[in-house]
Design a protein that fits this description.
Helix content: 10-25%
CATH class: Mainly Beta
Distance between the termini: 50 Å
Low-confidence stretches: none
Structural class: alpha+beta
Order of helices and strands: HHEEEEEEEEEEEEHE
Strand content: 35-45%
Number of strands: 13
Radius of gyration: 20 Å
CATH topology: Jelly Rolls
Amino acid sequence: MNESMSITATLAAAAGNSQSLIPSEGVADTLHIGTDDLPWMDVAGMEVQVLQVDLANGQWVVRAKLHPGSNPGRHYHTGSVTAVTTKGRWWYKETPDQVNSAGSYLFEPAMSMHTLVIPEDQGGPTEVWFSVNGANIDLDDEGNVVSILDANTILQAYRAHCESTGASCEKMIVIGENLL
């Protein structure tokens, strides 16, 4: 029996005893955010919508618009990052042969450092969905820390932005806020 069949057999056996696997009460509802449900905020040379912040795990999920020719600068990640590009193209100065375009998926391991490049010759902004674990540390040309963004600071900045512009961020998903 191959591994796939073994997993299938195990799942089928578990399904026969679904009473103990699936709760009958307290099942969580899904949470939905439409494309226009949250405002955009300028951060480090890009516009972002903060979709979700998990303070307990240090994770933050943003949708970003990066304008042609913009250069958010070099940064370092303390945790892993995943990125899905939905429009336009971009790459890292350090790996120019790895061009991200619509449909591309990128995994960045913890302790990675790179410089984002948005080409000047495209007709509109590049749009990317980023899920960041840990902190994003922005650096200047000499390697000095310019700013640090993590789940808590992005949440505070986004809420302050929404309050100052009169926009609502009620649809933003925030997990673990009761832990602060």
